[in-house]
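ok here's the first one, seq then struct tokens
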Amino acid sequence: MFTSNLEIKKYNCQFLKKTAIIIVFFCLTHVSFSQNVVVSEYFNGTDTRDEWTELLVINDNTDLRGNSIRDNNSSQTGWQTEVVFSNNNFWNNLRAGTIIVIWHRIRSTASTTNRIVDTIKSDGYIEVHAQLSGYFSGGDFGSAPTWSGASLSISASADIVQIRDNSNNHIHALGHKYTDSTDFIGIISSNKLNHASSLASGENVYVCPGSNLSEYIGGYSGTTWTSKGNTNITQGLPNYSPFSPSFPNRNYWRSLRQPIYNSPTLNTIVTNTGFTQANLTWNACTDVYPSDSTIGYIILRDTINTFINPSDSIVYAAGDSIGTATVIANINFSSTLTYTDNYAFACGKTYYYKIYAFRFRNDNINGNSYNAARGRAYNEIGTNIQSILKTIPISQPIIAN
């Protein structure tokens, strides 16, 4: 095949180049499909103690243990001391659609007591501060009471908030500066956005419209996929969009929070002669971590063959109505796939059943109906509709004597 050592060397060189291209392509593809968390918004306060960053978890089973969050300087040319997510199992098995608000300091300017934190993650919302012992380590926060250290202290002229994994590999970044500079350009990844503007005190910068993941990780610098302002501060809530009422970011958050339910199927069988029991069985929805009991099912019964989907953010109790349907049960375990409906079915009526999968509990802070992208989230496909009919018994003839 080869006539000289020179040809062999040329072939090997070409092979290595092709191999390197394939490896680079694989790595870039892997990064784009393994995006587990993004920076959705951050706020530049008049004082560092009032600043915060909002993260959004993209995939189920996300593990942030050992990951870090850091910011840059006022010219995007120098990274500040990072803050590291601890090895606390709290940061493991995070659910898709979980919102994480991190206050940059332990106290606000208006308080002499530490911030109240929310570490109940079963509702898909977490609110902590970067100095919270047991949850974070590292960082240069300075000294009390001003806590004026360099870490996570947003600069008006320019900054970048970046998330890295436990090997210091880039995950995602959101920044602001009229012309992106050295450290933003130096992030060799498309998983970043820079808003081409300064950021005054009391303003936030955020992904906009944020209707899908590609708008978070587009690798752009400008104003196409980002915005800023001081009147649309949406801490812990979907980002504001001028395209309202389409609510693109809220709908994207909801799509992440709702469980995956492929080809949901329901079967219903009446098993007793008295026709007072209906046994329901269904197939399981997708649940990569069933032991946390975050995913479950809601069961509806109606006498009309039309069902209205349950509303995100609402936990319905047994006996509640959704349209004309009645909620008969909440099943809080994704592996429970049977239910017996004990009910006095009326003669001559047909009864219909439908089941929806849900993720998350009630919003821990605000309760029901706070926002469609907080609290419980329902898969809106639902199972097929199953029906049963209790026939009218044939009366016995009267025999005259």
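and now the second one, same deal
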Amino acid sequence: MSLLAVAGANSSVGVYDIDNSLKFEADNNEYLSRTPSSAGNRRTWTLSCWVKRTELASSASMQILSAGDTYLHFDGDRLKANFRSAGTNFFFATNRVFRDTSAWYHIVLQCDTTQATNTDRAKLWVNGEAQTADWLDSYDNMALNYETLMNSTDEHEVGKYTNDESTYAEFFNGYMAEMHLVDGTALTPTDFGETDNDSGIWKPKEYTGSYGTNGFYLDFEDSSSLGADSSGNGNNFTLNNIAAADQATDTPTNNFAVLNTLHRIPDTTRKEGLTTTVKNNNGWRTIISTLGVSSGKWYFELSAGSEYTMIGVAGDAVYGGGGTWENYLGALTGSLGYYGNTATFFQDGVDKSPTNVSGFVADDIVGLALDVDNGKAYFHKNGTYQNLANPNTSTNGYTITGDAPYFLGLSTYQQSDQCEVNFGGYHVYSISSGNSDGEYGNFEYAPPSGYYALCTKNLAEYG
């Protein structure tokens, strides 16, 4: 069985659509900030947010929202809410771990310290499921009418936490979407989401309630004003190291493929929403997509790190674990790769030595059009298809081997090389022309007719 996802969990396709998310990168110190001019209700409030993690670490803290020492974050792979004050900890953390970088998680944190029962003063849900005593590790309980720092006049930070002494800061890696903070009301997940009747997947729905004094709604839809509050309160956030290019179309209602880190490939650094990998030492490393396909026609692009880069496809479980990542695409049976340095295709461990194939170098855009229905793969360099191939006429495609589902990917060899993939939802490299698949995605070169970006909406319709 493959260790990789065929489709990311909690990737809904429904009536209520979320169009955009915001990518956060800890290495770039990216976050949003706002300091309320007056305090709201510090005893009763609700936070709702969708997040997609992109970098995992057993000890790192990945912050979602903080207000002084009141904050919600991933502590390693556990989810933790802290309500610390004056050196006293009030927190609870899930015993569950959240390591699926192919999935969106919906998190709702409710605080109501006016409740008579101490265990009712803070509640946490993930994907509509209450994190009950079976799931929680708690430390003390907040006192009756305890005042948190949420909705206080302390700086509120999305994607960051700064400790009291400002001696260190912690940031978030991943995507966030649909963040609501409701000041003065204790709400539950059903105010923000619901279970899809057909799939059983938890999905977002429109929130129609009020927000209170310091409440806000960040939908990240305006690329020119990504910190804009859409609640009507005008509680806008300041951007810190964030630009319009950090807006993404990878959302809970249309989940795009990213690079898979399930088996934690060594000697590489993954960043920028799992669309970029940097090589730390010489030696082959192969990384493939989080989403796999068993039918349909698919397209993605790669900005090469150097001529020692490969783009390609692999069948199910070929690069699923163990030391398989040490083999370049095409070295193992069931895989195929286009190599820049020697201008050739490798397949099932054999150099196919085709004619009419050009090499590529750093910053060239190479693309792969994969026709699973007919078992063919087509590669281009800067828009010119190699081996005199033409995916529009099904001419000169390479026959793919291995078993479905198939995963798109790259191999990189040279130290310090930076490779940047574009599955359509987010990309790092600059796009000068802008082409979609007719549905979704944004690419440098136009996908062939009938080929689509690798995302859950396209999978539902064309996969």
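notes on #2: Confidence is low (pLDDT under 50) at residues 1-9. Residues 456-462 form the longest helix (7 residues).
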